[in-house]
Amino acid sequence: MTCSTEHDVLVRTRMSQMSSLFVMSMLMSDRLDVREILDLALGAIPSLTPCRVMAGWLTGDGSMLRGPEGGQITSDEVAQQLVSLDGADGPVTGSAAWVRAFAMRAVNGHCGYIVVGADEEPSEHEQSLLRMLAQQTGDAVSSATLHCKEQEGAAELRRLTVELAAVNEQLRANVVDLERRRRIHEVLMAVAVSGAGVRGIAGAVHELTDLAVAVEDRFGNVRVWAGPGSPPHSGRSPSRREEVLARVRQARRPVRDRDRVVALAQSRDEVLGVLALVDPGRCVGEHELAVLEEGAVVLAVELAHLRALAETELRLRRDLVDDLLSGTDDESALSRSAALGHDLTVPLNVLVVSSACGLRDETVEQAVDRAVATTLHERALLARRPGVIVAIVPRPAQWCDGDPWRGLQAAVARRLDSAEFSIGVGGLVTAPSHIPRSYDQALRALRIRQAAVVATGVTAYDELGIYRLLADGDTVETERFVREWLGGLLDYDEANRTQLVETLWQYYECGGNYDCTARALLIHRSTLRYRLRRIRQLTGHDLNAVESRLNMHVAVRAWRVLQGFT
User: Fold this and answer.
1) What is the 3-state secondary structure (H, E, C) of 369-406?
2) Quick one: pLDDT at residue 351?
């Protein structure tokens, strides 16, 4: 009777355990959080078996172990043992007498382990319960994982569907925009290849936008206007202009500047020009912006082309001037100059200009070029030489308003805003092959001008007088003449670092006037008297005697000319 009762109790106990295991399976199958499922499984172990929970481990958590209360525990040794089991059940080293890991198996492998421990090995039935619990836990974890992946997949599919719709919409908008830009490009390129130039590009932009269009240079000057009205006066300061250009460069697209929308025509980082839509009504939209951007690109190509042509012409012109100054045959010079739009069959003069006010050669060259055009109504061939600007100028058939070289000097001074420069004018030549001679004469005239009391101004070789004899004569003989009359003074100045020769020259240039000479030398009258007395002692000549005065005045002028040549 007792055995039967114990058997019935055992059966009921096992049925209760199986029922609890079934209920636990149902609970776990309703969960979608794998950690929550693992916590349910770990919590059920003490009610099913006499074992205690050591750890739970999910493959998705890597080496993270979870304790009986679901909290994280650290045991690298246990984690390494579970990894080495590779999906099989097996013993694990732990703090209890008996510790075993049960794999949570699933269809596609195992998803982790349940680690339990006891003071003695559980019965086979209890171990079977643990294996079943691990199996059910694995199924629930696998099902939850699959369900989550399905939900993620569905969400991703919905997201991709929305994105695809947005991409399709964007694609349709891009097709429309590309078609519009293609038409804009075709219209502007047709204008560009037709040779209509900058004015044609501005007109095409006006036709495409129905807005007034301005093409400006780098400095804000309106070069071309297309559309109704007339170009307004800019009134913007250079700093304000630079600020606007900097904004457009930084934005890399058109930028609004008050009642205008501005785009840059630039090559790399260099601004070649500005294309602007006049939009006081603020009606510029995407279409107008696309026209402005494309127009700026075409304008940049056109301006770069024009610059390349100008640079090529300038280089050819400079090469021609170099050959003319060094010497070339008439036939070649005439054909090359005619191709560049210059007539060298007319009488010519060579001018040499030297600035003493620290201006750049480019600034002086531009001033000379414009002055020749406005004063002589001719085009000059220009070149740069060390320290000077050389101009080959056709001599007008009729001189007007007195001396044209003085008028040219005044025109250059106005453009440079300075009179601190000297001009030497060579003699007249009637053939290109004679230009080197006029160039040499212009250099001599310039040196004599620079050696004069007033170094600024203009000196023509044909007007040199006695200086012309000195400039053209034998330099050795001239030096001998200077030594004959001034040798003692020159030696005394060199030995004592005085300025007796300079004093004598200034005295004669001032016509023997004491006050004028003293002012020019910045010395007192008594100092001047002492120097003149010393000069008479060293030379032995009476400074006011006619013959002595003539020879000594010529000698000091020759000394000044020789100083200019060295």
Assistant:
1) HHHHHHHCCCCCEEEEECCEEEEEEECCCCCCCCCHHH
2) 92
Query: Cα 344 to chain center, whole Å?
Result: 43
- pLDDT tens sequence across 542-559: 888 887 888 888 888 878
Q: What is the rounded average pLDDT of the residues 309-334?
A: 83
**Three-state SS at 234:** coil
Q: Which of 178, 182, 228 is nearest to 203 (CA)?
A: 228
Residue 472 confidence (pLDDT)? 59
Structural domains present in the chain: 2-151 (3.30.450.40), 195-309 (3.30.450.40), 327-461 (3.30.70.270), 473-565 (1.10.10.2840)
Calculate the CA 85 to chain-centre distance. Answer: 65
Phi, psi of 541, deg, nearest 5: -115, 145
d(CA 353, CA 362): 12
Give per-residue pLDDT as tens, 36-82: 888 888 888 888 888 888 888 888 765 567 776 656 677 777 888 88
The mean pLDDT of the chain is: 83
Residue 407 makes CB contacts below 8 A (sequence gap 6+) with 375, 401
In 270-314, DSSP assigns E strands to 270-278
8 A C-beta contact, residue 354 and residue 402: no
Give the separation between CA 532 and CA 505, rounded to whole angstroms: 11
Pick the closest to residue 429 from 419, 442, 417, 420 (CA basis): 442
* Residue among 392, 379, 401, 452 at smallest CA distance from 422: 452
Q: Which residues pair with 423 in a beta bridge?
A: 353, 458
Fill in the amino acid letter for 244.
Answer: V
Residues in contact with 307: Cβ distance below 8 Å, sequence separation at least 6, in sequence order: 272
What is the Cα 342 distance to its own chain's centre?
Answer: 38
The pTM assigned to this predicted structure is 0.47
As a residue count, the chain comes to 566
Q: Is 421 exposed, middle or buried (0-12, 13-18, 19+ CB in 10 A)?
A: buried
Strand spans (E) along 290-347: none
Question: How far is residue 262's CA from residue 205's CA, in Å, rounded to a whole number?
Answer: 13
**Close Cβ partners of 17 (under 8 Å, ≥ 6 residues apart):** 48, 129
| CB-based contacts of 5, cutoff 8 Å, min separation 6 | none
User: Residue 503 carries which side chain, given as an amino acid letter?
Assistant: T
**Residue 319 · residue 384 · CB < 8 Å:** no
47: Cα within 13 Å, side-chain hemisphere: 14
**502/424 Cα distance (integer angstroms):** 24
d(CA 560, CA 448): 8
Q: Which of 444, 478, 256, 454 is nearest to 350 (CA)?
A: 444
Amino acid making up residue 228: P
Question: What percentage of residues in the chain have a pLDDT greater than 90?
Answer: 4
- What is the pLDDT, as a whole number, of residue 565? 46
- Condensed to tens digits (0 to 9), the pLDDT of residues 415-466 reads 888 888 889 899 889 899 999 999 988 888 888 777 666 778 888 888 776 6
The string of DSSP letters for 334-381 reads: HHHHHHTT---SS-EEEEEEEESS---HHHHHHHHHHHHHHHT-SPPE
